[in-house]
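Explain this record to help learners:
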Amino acid sequence: MAEGNHTSSAEFVLSGFSEQGDVQAVLFVVFLVIYMITLLGNLGMLMLIRLDVQLHTPMYFFLSSLSFLDICYSSSITPRLLSDLLAGRKAISYSACLAQFYFYAVFATTECYLLAVMAYDRYVAICSPLLYAISMSSRVCVLLVAGSYLAGITNATIHAGFALRLSFCGPNIINHFYCEGPPLYAISCTDPTINEIMMFVVVGFNLLVTNLTILISYTYILATILRMRSAASKQKAFSTCASHLTTVMLFYGSAASMYSRPSSRHSQELDKVASVFYTVVTPMMNPLIYSLRNKEVKDVLGRVMKRKRSSQNHLSLRMIPANHTDVREFVLLGLTTRPDLQVPVFLAFLAIYMVTLLGNFGIIALIRTDFHLHTPMYYFLSHLAFVDICYSPIILPKMLVQILTEEKTIAFLGCAIQLCCFVIFGVTECVLLAVMAYDRYVAICKPLLYHSIMCGWMCWWLVTGSYTIGVLHAVTHTTFIFTFSFCHSNVINHYFCDIAPLLALSCSETHTYEVIILALVSINCLSTMTIIFISYTYILPTVLRIHSPEGKRKAFSTCISHLTVVTLFFGAILFMYLRPSSTFALDENKMVTLFYTIMTPTLNPLVYSLRNREGFTNRLDLQVKLFVVFLLIYVLTVVGNLGIISVVWLDSQLQTAMYFFLGNLSFLDLCYSSVVTPKMLLTLSSEKKTISFAGCLTQLYFYAAFVTVECYLLAVMAYDRYVAICKPLHYPVVMSQKVCVSLLAGSYVIGFFDSLVFTGFALRVSFCGPNIIDHFFCDGPPLSKLACSDTHLNEVLVLALGGFNLVVTTSVILISYSCILFTILKMGSALGKRKAFGTCTSHLMVVTIFYGTLLFTYLRPVSSYFAGRDKIVSVFYAVVSPLLNPFIYTLRNQEVKSTLKRAVGRITISTPKCFGTTECFLLAAMAYDCYVAICNALLYQAVMSHMVCVLLVAGSYVLSLLHALVHRSFTFSLPFCRTAKVNHFYCKIMPVVALSCSDTQVNRRLIFGLGGLVEMVTILAVLVSYAFSLSALSKISSAKSRYKTFSISHLTAVSIFHGSILALNFQPSSSNSLSTDKTFSVFYLLVVPMLKPLIYSLRNRQVKNVLKEFVMWK
């Protein structure tokens, strides 16, 4: 195996079809046309089934799944084939070849089983029509499709796994146009007999099972049809089967000829033709067969086309008055209608306008006149200043005129021009800021290549592209908006012609345009912000590696100005546009728009001229600052996620599927943040940064497990939102408690299984060179960089499993939100839309933050791993993301905020209980420490190591926290309908329980049981420890040694603390006097904490000696 993996063939060459250029050009055109027809046909079939309610049946559900499969497995082959037909060199890497083989096998096998399922569906429909709705229920259909995919994944995993044993040390030319099993086996220098037998057996089994299902189904169907008396019924039954039978014969014929024969009889050219047929041609034929041979599909297609034509005709009729609307001009209300404020507002904005013009013209003049500023960076800056000059005069002069005069009207054409110019320069500035970020990346990360990469023509093209994108956006928005009809009021509640207030005046249907604006602004902002984010991800680690403080300061000074401008501009843009118009508050939007249309152009030249020159200090100071920052983040993460868990657990209003998953998401965030952050804090605070091999592997295992579980849990939450919004009446049934627990358990099973696979394969890697991991935790890529054995298998496994997990989960999320968006847009109520969007936005933000960094980090080969950049990205999703999740869900969710406010008053009952229980466990830990010190003195340093001490203390806190949460949960689940006066000086459990108007027997038993268990365990630990200690002390012959060894301080503290606890809690309620209770509470809450330092200082010689030295020094 090791030698097999040590292959010299890091890549393969696909021979394809022909080496003749003219033939390849013809084949390229042919296959491109076939691929386009495949995509259009199958996507059309998917949309047709989705749009028409008459096709929402099991048969068409399976047909839509077949169309999706055809798109997938054709796309796994054809794009690469087209690329190779145009390329001179047809090389494919080992991992890419294996990935192509894997996904092709998944989709092909799934299609086999899906065709068998469709045959079974036809059997039930024709032979048992009365039971069809029950037998082929929605649940059964989903399970059958899921089973098909599971069979496909299992089959592909077996083949890909056995392919990993092959070594390739000879010719690397694959005589095929894609990576397939038989051609790969032909060039292997390992004996492929096992692979061939396995392929023959597994593929034979799949074909036997699926063919047998199809044959048996059609045998029954034929017998049933022949018994029908009506010719029309026979014809109808045959017509539903003919399409499926044609598809089956096309697919199975070529597949069977390809695989179900030994390799000795393989003809490569024949196999290529057969492969073309079922990988390229069949996916194109399927939608044509089902549309041309299926009357229902043809009828639905006809109705859709008819509706489309009628809607276009209706739209054209409506467009005549829209273009010749009665609204010839609009009235702009402006910022304020108060007369006393108009003069101050005029003077303020006149000053701002003058500063904007002077500042930006000054920047342009300075760059133009100074030869030293003729660089790409200042070329882009001059264009940014020019855009700001153009951007601001579009709005400010008109606004200033309106403030001073009664004339507040703007012509229809003038409004259109103002909007068009505003969008042009606004979008151009977005793209230009992204270009400037890329310029900074090249300048800092590739300084030697800067002038060759950012040459004159490249800068010109980048600026021209920015303006072109701006113009295209402006034309799109202006065309859509000003083709609407404006037959209502012509008063625009704004100070310029912006999109939102214009939409509010339209009497046309604007839902489609709302989706378009959301898509365009999202694409524009997402693409530009991604470029900026990636650029600075590269820049930051490069700057940190610069040794010279002056170099760091200079690099940061050129970036800090740009970052400030980006933050100012994009912050307002995102707040303004990335939400549906139903949530617009126009007065609020005026203030936001004012910021990025008027203030940002004014601030930009000031920001760039008054550059921040601060950089980083030395490494030690940086580590101290990082420790403080990450400690604060971790504390907030723990508090925030525990708060979410507590709120969801305590409040009965949140006992729903959505909040059940949210509580588990918080638990996951808490877990996987705790896997990484505590060790990182320990590393930052100490000089010793080592981690044992077992510790590293454990950290890798749990980190991978929790991250994978979170991926699936986010997908489950998306599915939950889909059911809640798209099928609200079925929500309690579909998302029952059993289903929720099953989905959660499935996520955990997949996560821990995947992690087990990753960690198991990590064990096969040997480390014989340097042992310094260039990361802050044990992650896969940095570990692979240290390996001295071949890691190709690990890389392929990470790519395959990680890719599969991400494809599955992101597909679920995308499909769920596609359905959700479609449902929301059909809602008539603005309030309903707002509420639906409100439940989704939090989840979407979490998904974007989590998946964005995860995809960037892992879905690439380890050879492209760059430590500095990936550390920053890893910090974001391993440390910052778990902190953000609870804040996102609390700040954007009204129910959680309300519950949180109600829960604040309940916190006080947990605090004394939590710290009281902690003290019990800590006293037991101290007794164990005394036992080790006396009975195992030689092993004391090894047994009571720093790590063990930290774990004992942390365990004490965790156990006490759980104990307190249980008590608080049970206490505040009781109804309180009596007096609200607690007869105590703090919220103690028993006086609070006494106020309840329900049966509190269970709570009292719980208090007694849990309290008794804690007391029994801790006292038993103390007694056992001291029994062994006294036994060891009795064997010491010297009285002085016995006196020195034995410490009475701890025993005194234990006796005082546990004595008052036992006296207070363990007495029957009949003899429990509240005045006595208060007295004992005062004793162990106030007196005992005061006595402990006195006991330990007066009865401990070491403490006394240190205290004396300190006093003398002072």
